[in-house]
């Protein structure tokens, strides 16, 4: 009986399992640190748009001084 390939299945399974564990650990650590999953493929444009959106939300959340002085 030729089942020598079974000798390779256990180490390959262990390696694949640890790769999955490490990938999930990175996901959950990033999500715990930043409160959201990591954006894959985040380039300079995405960073600029996130920065712009954050400024806009801060401006909308801050009380406007021009309307309260009337």
Could you please describe the fold and organization of this structure?
- This protein is mostly helical and 70 residues long.
- 73% of the residues lie in helices and 0% in strands.
- The protein is built from three helices and no strands.
- The chain has helices at 6-34, 44-61, 65-68.
- The longest helix has 29 residues, at 6-34.
- The termini are far apart.
- The model has no long low-confidence stretch (mean pLDDT 87).
Describe the SSE topology:
Blueprint: H1 6-34, H2 44-61, H3 65-68
Membrane topology: Single-pass membrane protein
Transmembrane segments: 12-29
Keywords: Electron transport, Membrane, Mitochondrion, Mitochondrion inner membrane, Respiratory chain, Transmembrane, Transmembrane helix, Transport
Briefly say what this structure is.
This protein is mostly helical and 70 residues long. It has helices at residues 6-34, 44-61, 65-68.
Order of helices and strands: HHH
Share of β-strand residues: under 5%
Low-confidence stretches: none
Approximate helicity band: over 70%
Which short descriptors sum up this protein?
70 residues, mainly alpha, 3 helices, rod-shaped
């Amino acid at each position: 009986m030729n089942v020598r390939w079974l000798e390779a299945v256990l180490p390959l399974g262990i390696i694949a399992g640890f790769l999955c564990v490490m990938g999930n650990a990175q996901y959950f650590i990033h999500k715990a640190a930043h409160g959201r999953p990591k954006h894959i493929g985040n380039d300079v444009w995405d960073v600029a748009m996130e920065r712009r959106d954050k400024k806009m939300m801060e401006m909308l959340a801050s009380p406007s001084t021009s309307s309260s002085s009337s």
